[in-house]
Design goal:
This protein is mostly helical. It has 11 helices and no strands.
């Protein structure tokens, strides 16, 4: 009879993946050692290997767990059987929220999945394709005619691109937060520029620092700076 996992095992596993993702995002996968991951987690190297057999295993789980969460969001929204436009808007909202909480993992997915062995890389890429297919179905729900014109997938890629790259310029303490920008993305995609409504004013950040610049620039920052990269 197989032994069950100790209490707290999954929490520790998630912490390791989060800390490793942050290190990979800051330094790059190749330049990060398992010793550094163990130190960042407050663990011995032997304990770290109890959870993940090597650095490549860490990379796979960071990337695959990330896209699996996104795939689950697409499935959950579809299962609610909302009206077509409401479904698309809810999908945008949920995906933007997911990106807000996983910036380092998204950077690792974008830049480091190439270091995975082909079979593992294909599993990640296949999951990404399933996400895009789900978004394409949501787009076709709003405009069925575009689906028949083979535009469903390209439009889905355009929408996903808007969301996917948000983490490279959004700052949590900027003029807009992710909750405010999600409906803007949906408005822009569904109705074009004329449909975009300004979000409600946001209170000044703590500490008295006033947000400066326009809405177009006040949230923008180099992604490495946002992740604390001092290179």
């Amino acid at each position: 009879m197989a032994r069950g996992r100790a209490p707290g095992y999954e929490d520790q596993r998630v912490l390791i993946l989060d800390r490793a993702a942050l290190l990979f995002a800051r330094k790059g996968y190749v330049a990060t050692s398992m010793n550094e991951v163990a130190e960042a987690c407050g663990l011995s190297k032997a304990t770290l290997y109890h959870y993940f057999r090597d650095k490549r295993s860490l990379l796979f789980h960071i990337t695959h767990d990330n896209v699996a969460r996104l795939r689950a969001i697409v499935a959950e929204v579809a299962a609610r059987e909302l009206a077509p436009e409401a479904c698309l808007r809810e999908l945008v909202r949920r995906l933007v929220a997911a990106y807000a909480g996983a910036q380092a993992a998204h950077r690792v997915l974008t830049e480091d999945v190439r270091f995975l062995p082909p079979p593992e890389r294909e599993r990640v890429l296949q999951t990404e394709r399933e996400i895009v297919a789900g978004i394409a179905r949501a787009v076709a729900g709003v405009r069925p005619d575009l689906g028949t014109m083979a535009l469903g997938k390209p439009l889905a890629m355009l929408l996903f691109g808007m969301i996917n790259w948000m983490f490279t310029w959004m700052r949590p303490d900027g003029v807009l937060d992710y909750d405010a920008i999600a409906p803007v993305v949906a408005d822009l995609f569904v109705g074009g520029l004329h449909a975009v409504r300004p979000p409600p004013a946001r209170a000044a950040p703590r500490g008295g620092r006033r947000a400066t610049g326009s809405a177009a620039t006040g949230n923008m920052a180099p992604s490495k700076q946002a992740l604390g990269d001092k290179r």
